[in-house]
Specification:
Blueprint: H1 2-9, H2 13-24, H3 28-37, E1 45-50, H4 57-70, E2 75-81, H5 93-96, H6 99-103, E3 107-112, H7 122-133, E4 138-142, E5 159-164, H8 171-177, E6 185-188, H9 196-210, E7 220-222, H10 231-247, H11 250-280, H12 283-294, H13 299-310
Parallel strand pairs: 1-4, 1-5, 2-3, 2-4, 5-6, 6-7
Helix pairs in contact: 1-2, 1-3, 2-3, 2-7, 12-13
Length: 315
């Protein structure tokens, strides 16, 4: 792992891909390697793209990756795809919509979200550190888009773009999704489709209610990711937000908060994984589960009984 870390710090993308794979496989040595990379991280601008399925997030991510690469930035993309129920791997559909970015030799990594809240694999955090160690100064996360649970995305990103289309639904559905709350920039993609202008007006009305004096004013922009229309205006807005965060002194504060929240999120996922492994071998769990299914006991009492047997009350 030591030589792998050295190669990554020297810009070897094949070594970066190998380490990300090991992180996905939950190789214990990979976590040691990430610890060695950590001192070399924290300087990149991390951009998150989220929104409902079908909004054009992948195409938009590819366009932005190319735009930043053309401006001289060193770009990496992490795209989370839905998990195949058969192979537990990613469908890799996102890669198909980023062909222009691949032609530019931009580093793109697809990974399965594996059912974790927010559509982000636990390994996505490790992948971010690997890309920073590799020297990427712009990292784009493109999420699978899972509604309100996408709020977990902000743990990793400096700036979040929430993507909608003109047919997002009425305002109540919009607010219930919770996606507007985490967006630093709101985008109505597929601007040539019916309803785009109306959606922009609705989002602007919502944005004006949540903005506070002296804070960042959330812009609402129209784009056509398929043709590139509006991408230049969007990249300008992203850069303005990066400057705002840096000049307001919030970047270092946000970094500390993110690390703490990320630690807690990773701990929850790891704890649940280990608990699942223990439950598979736990005879009491199987018996209690059978009693719940047959109606002999209620789920609440059953839960407490299993937790007591695992010793979680002593943690």
């Amino acid at each position: 792992m030591t030589s792998l870390v050295e190669k990554i710090l020297n810009g070897d993308e094949k070594s970066a891909a190998r380490l990300i794979s090991k992180v996905e496989e939950e190789n214990s040595g990979a976590y040691t390697a990430l610890s060695r990379l950590l001192p070399h991280t924290g300087k990149a601008n991390v951009l998150g793209i989220t929104g409902p399925p079908g909004a054009g997030k992948s195409t938009l991510a590819g366009r932005l990756a190319v735009a930043f690469a053309d401006s001289g930035r060193n770009v990496g993309v992490i795209a989370t795809d839905p998990t195949s129920i058969h192979t537990r791997g990613a469908f890799l559909g996102d890669r198909l919509r980023m062909k222009n970015a691949e032609k530019k030799k931009i580093f793109i990594r697809s990974m399965a979200h594996r059912g974790y809240p927010g559509g982000l694999a636990k390994a996505a955090a490790g992948a971010m550190y690997v890309l920073e160690g590799l020297g990427k100064d712009v990292i784009i996360f493109e999420s699978v888009g899972a509604g309100q649970s996408e709020k977990g995305l902000f743990l990793l990103c400096d700036t979040i773009i929430t993507v909608f289309t003109g047919d997002y639904g009425d305002e109540i559905q919009l607010l219930k999704a919770g996606l507007t709350e985490i967006g630093d920039i709101l985008v109505v993609n597929k601007a040539d489709k019916p309803g785009a202008e109306e959606a922009k007006k609705d989002l602007e009305a919502f944005s004006s209610r949540v903005n506070t004096p002296g804070d960042w004013h959330v812009p609402v922009l129209l784009t056509r990711a398929d043709s590139g229309e509006g991408i230049e205006v969007l990249t300008d807005a992203i850069k303005r937000h990066w400057r705002f965060v840096a000049e307001s002194g919030k970047k270092e504060q946000k970094k500390k908060e993110k690390l703490g929240l990320l630690f807690i999120a990773l701990l929850k996922e790891e704890f649940w994984q280990r608990t699942q492994k223990r439950l598979k071998k736990n005879r009491l769990f199987k018996d209690v589960l059978s009693d719940v299914r047959s109606g002999k006991t209620d789920p609440y009492s059953a839960m407490q009984k299993v937790l007591d047997s695992l010793g979680t009350t002593n943690i």
